[in-house]
Design goal:
The radius of gyration is 27 Å and the shape is rod-shaped. It is of the alpha+beta class. 27% of the residues lie in helices and 31% in strands. It contains two helices and eight strands, in the order H-E-E-E-E-E-E-E-E-H. The chain has two domains: 6-31 and 145-170, no CATH class; 38-135, Immunoglobulin-like (Sandwich). The two termini are 13 Å apart.
Amino acid sequence: MKIPNNKALRMASCCFAIGAILLIVLSPRPVVAHTPSSMTLGYNWDTQTLSVTISHTVTDPNSHYIQNMTVYKNDVKVDSRLYTSQESTTSASDTFNIAAVDGDILRVWAECSQVGTIEDTITVTEPSTTTPTTTDGTTTPPPSGYELATIMIAAVIVLLGIFLVIFRLRRR
């Protein structure tokens, strides 16, 4: 086996350095948006009011907020509201006047202005047993194309470097 000379090693090192720089410069940056993390629903039988509180930690509630809440009663849309900000950096909340009877299922679906949704349900029961329920909810994760794109870019750069080194060594 022929040991490559210093020129070939310099070429391989240069290809590796260029590849590493391109990987760092071209790799996608992670999204700093957070999906809503949990939802608390409560139904007040006396006032026929559904209260919704969504845990959603943000740095700027004017640019990153819960932008939509939609309420369904027994899978029929009964109310929907759009928002342009969130009242705090930790949560969003609202109340909805929903006439319900014992056994009705109320479902709330909410959407973040940047990424993610959350959904939860509550079953309306007699006043003596109606209590707010808390759940971790169902969230939609951020798009997962970042990892795939980074791996593809790295693979292309590594293959290009290997190809250049082999091509250079064969020319000798």
